[in-house]
Amino acid sequence: MIDMIDAIDGTISMTPEIVASIDAVYDFRVPKNWQYDPTGVERSWLTPSLAGWLKGLVDRHYQLNNWISKERPASFWLTGFLNPQGFLTSMKQEVTRLKKGWSLDEVTYYSEVKKDIIGGDDGRIEGKTLTAPNEGVFIHGLFMEGAAWNKVEQKLEESQPKQLFTAFPILMVSAMSTAPPA
Questions:
Q1: pLDDT tens digit string along 108-150?
Q2: Which terminus of the chain has a lower count of CB atoms within 10 Å, N or C?
């Protein structure tokens, strides 16, 4: 955290950015330079408190570390990615490569709502036995605001009174060709 030590008299000086970060941590806020780069572009998830930011960091590390050190997860916690659109794009590329004759330009997303719900907002799927789909991915950890999913009728419905957020079931996302049959 020390930016510069003066070689002449041994005094320690800090930049205004480091002082602002120390003040933010002291006030239990997320330092601005942890969330934005110097140009103002968001480089981290935005949370109102330092506790939420640190919890997100731990949960994201858990998902990515398990993926790297163990195996590909059966289901991915989509909100755990800094760039979920990039993750879904790479899944679409993966499916396109599996299919002979498909072109990425002629592929679109396909999704199917499953019945199981993985509770919690930390992305962990312990206690659930899932088998990953042959192509595409399962994603979980999504919530709806002001609506609910009717599992029996497979449609959206009004949420229960005084229940603002409801967990969304596991979603199978894959790709399908939009090219006319040859």
A1: 999 999 988 887 777 787 777 888 899 999 999 898 998 999 8
A2: C
Nearest to 81 by CA among 63, 93, 65, 67: 63
Distances 181 to 43, 96, 128, 176 between C-alpha atoms, Å: 42, 16, 39, 12
pLDDT in tens, 48-97: 899 989 998 999 999 999 899 998 989 999 988 888 999 999 999 999 99
The answer to whether 43 and 32 are in contact (CB under 8 A) is no
Judged by phi (left if over 0) then psi (alpha if -120 to 50, else beta), residue 146 lies in left
Indicate whether 134 belongs to any domain: yes
**Enclosing H/E stretch for 166:** strand 165-167
Query: Which contiguous run of DSSP H or E holds residue 55?
Result: helix 50-69
List the structure tokens of 124.
């962990």
With respect to residue 11, please indicate whether it lies within any of the assigned structural domains. no
* Sign for the pseudo-dihedral over CA of 123, 141, 81, 178: positive
Q: Is residue 49 part of a domain?
A: no
Count of CA atoms in the C-beta half-sphere (13 A) of 83? 7
Domain count, the chain: 1
Do 35 and 46 contact (CB within 8 A), yes or no?
A: yes
pTM for the model stands at: 0.79
